[in-house]
Amino acid sequence: MATTDEDLNQLEKDVRQLKIEYEQYFGGGRARPPADTEWRIELILKRYADRSAGMSFGQRFRYNNLTQTYAKYREIFRKRLKEREEGIVPRHFGAAAKAIEAERARANAGRGASRAKRAPPFAVACSDPDGEAKKVEQLYQAFFSAKQSVGENTDRLTLDNFQKFLREKTQQLKKQKGCQQVEYVVAVEGGQVRLKARVKE
Fold first, then answer.
1. 100, burial (CB in 10 Å: exposed 0-12, middle 13-18, buried 19+)
2. Where do runs of H (alpha helix) occur along the chain?
3. Which of 31, 91, 95, 173 is deepest in the core (most CB within 10 A)?
4. Which helix (H) or strand (E) holds 128?
5. What phi and psi, each to the nearest 5 degrees, are found at residue 135?
6. Closest-CA residue to 74 (of 33, 103, 115)
7. Is residue 149 pLDDT above 60, yes or no?
8. Strand 122-126's sheet: what is its strand order?
9. 192 — phi, psi (to 5°)?
10. Predicted pLDDT at 116
């Protein structure tokens, strides 16, 4: 039986594949919509819908992101299918869609930056990141969400490498400053996300 992480990896792969297969369908490269891929996605989503309590913080965060991405894609595809059935798909739809999507992304990034500027900084004090998993996960989520809100790339940001950074930084500052705790603050300055470290007695 697959583990939760393996199922989430498969879910992420299928969501990406669904987008590709729908684009192929709308572009004339497929005869039918990708019902099989959509069925696999629905199966995993239903399996974990009532099992979120058994997932770790990071797994729930990832599951919710994938669920939202799938819902967004499904709504876009539903509208395009309706337009296709009604015969109102405009010419050069691909280029037009990309232009519209790019404009929306710019607008959303602007709104995200504006919201992030108004959002109060998020702070967590750590003395041992390896033994304070909940604090690390909360800080990671705040940092990840802040980056997404201003349109920064989060592809290479994972909970594991984030925890590794906190561990090394905390040990370094405790040794250099002789402090007991290090407070980490997630803040947005000039439209960019910053993770600041402050020593605490």
1. exposed
2. 4-26, 35-49, 57-86, 93-118, 133-149, 159-177
3. 173
4. none
5. -65, -40
6. 33
7. yes
8. 122-126, 181-189, 192-200
9. -120, 145
10. 42
